[in-house]
Structures are given as structure tokens and as C-alpha cells.
Amino acid sequence: MKWVVVFAGSRDSYQVPLALAEAGCLAALVTDCYAPLDSLSGVLLTCLPARMRTSLQRRYANGLPSKSVEWRKSTFLSDYLRKSSHVVRDRRLGRLGGSLASRYKAGLISYSYYGYHAFHSYGLDQWPKVLFQVHPHPVSVRRILEEELQCSEFGRSSLLEEPEFTTLPGRREELSQEAFLADRCIVASNFTKRTLLENGMAEERIAVVPYGVDSEKFSFQQRAEGGPFRVVFVGQLVQRKGLEYLLKAWRRLRLPNADLVLAGRGRVDRGLLDEFADEFRYVGPLSDAELLALYGNSDLFCMPSLVEGFGLVYLEALAVGLPIIATPNTGAADIIRNGQEGFIVPVRDVEALANCIEWGYAHREALRDMRWNARRTALRYSWRSFRTGVISALDAISGSRILME
Length: 405
What we know:
By secondary structure, this protein is an alpha/beta fold. It has two domains: 3-212 and 384-398, 3-Layer(aba) Sandwich (Rossmann fold), CATH 3.40.50; 229-381, Rossmann fold (3-Layer(aba) Sandwich). It is built from 19 helices and 13 strands. The strands form two sheets. Strands 3-2-1-4-5-6-7 form a seven-stranded parallel sheet, sandwiched between helices. β12 (324-326), α16 (332-335) and β13 (342-344) form a beta-alpha-beta unit. α6 crosses α10 (169-181). The chain is globular, with a radius of gyration of 22 Å. The two termini are 24 Å apart.
């Protein structure tokens, strides 16, 4: 069976359409922009400005030929010049993906945000329809964040900016329905699966396929002897990531010769950071090389997120050999053994966070031994294994129709 895939950007480094292309069953990827680097000469590419070349390379994947990608240059330019909202773009992409899948008589795989309109354009009586549920179910996410509004002292500003609160009710309803319009959902973590179950989806309609990591790009780094004890956080600096609880735990410990480093791009909760201004060192967004060096010179990675569909940064840190601290509301809980490659602590638990950090501070030699466990675990989660898992999940529905409830 051939499949049409729809999403914007370079979602998951194009791994789903790559999996289909490798298996010879990709009808088309429908997206907002894709760089046809396979049709450009190497000489021409090297003549481009470095920033433009980097941007183009981010929108291309070896093994995914540009002839297999459908995107409208005029639509992309219109969205860019008019600064169209994501909702408008997502609706347009979804409808294009659904109509193409119907025309090609192919199966349809839509990522979250495009599914509602993709499935309606495809035809709700058509089969098969698959949703890749990137984030946990939006109803569950909103509930968790509403609870957090009652718990957080300093992170309310960034919480109220989360899409679960800023998205209009009609759009929220569409996003809540996406999973139930699909014949099958693919998710990257058991936590995301649990949120679908608690909102009424049948378990047999959900396939868990964990993400992968490029273990060559994120190569093992042996921690140098000596230097300050270092804990690193990488991600958006907002309360959704549990940042307030990490900062409170660090302030409680007051460890001598110790360093908390915050890095990442995207949104920053300035009010939250100002409350703990003396507790951390902020290094901003980092290049791949800079991030690798930071991981290699750190003792623990900590991102105690309130809610994550998976959390690729956990796998990237593990691949470098960095033990992690995470919560059950992430994909990390599926991957590591508590006390072997890192630690799983309850959400909002400052004491548990402080205890894990303090243990690491007192047992740095043990942490160095854990680095090998971390690396070995990450090696089991390659992007190739992810692609194989996606194809297996699709094969499971190609032979037997799963009726919508």
C-alpha cells in the first residue's frame, strides 16, 4: 500500500516519509517547503551564502527525493509574506494532503495539527487514516497545565502563553477530535498513549514507536576529571519544562563548586528566571558542536517536564553518555532504568529532584560509570529502529481494517 504523509517543517527529521520511501510505499509527502537539493549541483550549492545553505539543508533529507514531495511555492510565499497564522497554514496543508491521498487511492498519515482537515478532505469513510500524535492528547495537557497554574509560584506567565490556553475553543475542539477520526494512532511514548486512553481511545488502536537518535552526531563524550559539578538543562526556558522546580531544588542545595547551566532556544520566561537570577548560568541557543561540548563537560542532564510527547533531548544526552533526570510524563520513563542511566522523579517534586542532584554530587565516580549505561541504552534507539517500527505499525493495519468507535 502507498501512503501520503502530511506535516509542516522538517518534523522528526523527515523520518516517517523516509521510512516509507525506503519501503517503496511513499506516494507523497505534503509539506510547506522542501529544498530540491538532489537537483542542484554541488558547485551551485557551495556558491550559496552559508546561512542560506544551512537553511536549505534543514529542509532536505538524503533518501527522500524532491520528486516525492508536494508543496506549493506560491502558497509558501503567500503565507510567509502575509504572515499567515499557523492555523491557516495547517488547515491548507491538511486539506491538500487529504485530497491527494484520495486522488492517489493511498493511505493517509497526518501528523497532529493537520489531521482534522486532512481526514475530512480524505473522507471519513475512507481507509486507512493514521494520526501521528506528536504531543499528548490536548485535553490531558490542558488539565495538567491548569493544575500547574495552581501550583507554580513564578511560572504562570509562560503557562498562560501555552497553546492549550491561547488556542481558540473551536480549534481546540478540532485538535481534540483528530485522534478519534483516525483508524490508528502512532505515538512516541507510553505517556502519550495513556493520555489517549484516558480520553476514550481503544488501546488496540494505538501503536507506540519510540523516537531515535543519531548516535554518530551525538557521540560519546568522556567526562574530564575535576572541574565543578555541573547540571545542565536544555530546552525552552518555560514552566512547562518544570524549570521552576529545578531552580528551587538547586537553590535548596547550595552546593559549593557546582554549576547549573541553562541552554536552549525558543520561549524564555523572563519573570521566572529573574526570581532565580543568582542560581544559574544561561548560555543561550547553542550550535551542535557547542551543545556536544556542554554535554561532555556536565555530570547530569535535568529537564523535569510537566508534559512531553517524548523529549528528544533526553535521548541526545544519553547518547553522549550523560545520565538524565526526567519525570514519568515523558518518553524518558520508557527508556531508562531508575538509578542505572539516570533517575525518574515525580512531577513538581522539589525534594526528589534535590535528592537526585545531591546524590550525583556526592557520587561523581558512580555518575561517570553510569555514562556507559546511558550510551548503551541510547544505541538501542536509532532512527533506523524508529523507521522499522513505523513500517511495522502500518503493516499491522494494512491487512485488517480497524473500525472507528
